[in-house]
Amino acid sequence: MTIDTIIESFGYLDDWEERYRYLIELGRDLPPFPDEARTAANKVEGCASQVWLLSRMQPSPEGSVLTFQGDSDAHIVKGLVALILAFYSGHTAREIATMDAGALLSDLGLSDHLTPQRSNGVRAMVQRIKAEAARALVTN
């Protein structure tokens, strides 16, 4: 699912219970995460729930394009993983460096409705993704 589709769908949902259900649905739609990738190296530190993230880098004429795969052991967090991955995945490292997930969460109204622990977890995911993008920029 694209980030544009997700943003559009959020616009149709009136109350927060519906939005949380939609987040859970997004998490259920994530591709299966490989069991062998549930390692300490792929675990995102700073999340209260367990969150794992894999990144792949593919060269392109515009620079390295990063794609991400993720998972969590908590339903709402897994939905947040899906949202963040839809936002960042498929962009170049240079683009990722300038993208603002905080603005996305604010535009969707999520920043006002996430617990501090979940907000910290989202920040940790974003930091990890931006670190992967920074590594890709150095290797090119």
Automatic annotation (TrEMBL):
This is SufE family protein. It comes from the Bacteria. Signal peptide: none annotated. InterPro entries: Fe-S_metab-assoc_dom. Belongs to the SufE family. It comes from Terrihabitans rhizophilus. PANTHER family: SUFE-LIKE PROTEIN 2, CHLOROPLASTIC, SULFUR ACCEPTOR PROTEIN CSDE. It holds the Pfam family SufE. Residues 8-131 form the Fe-S metabolism associated domain.
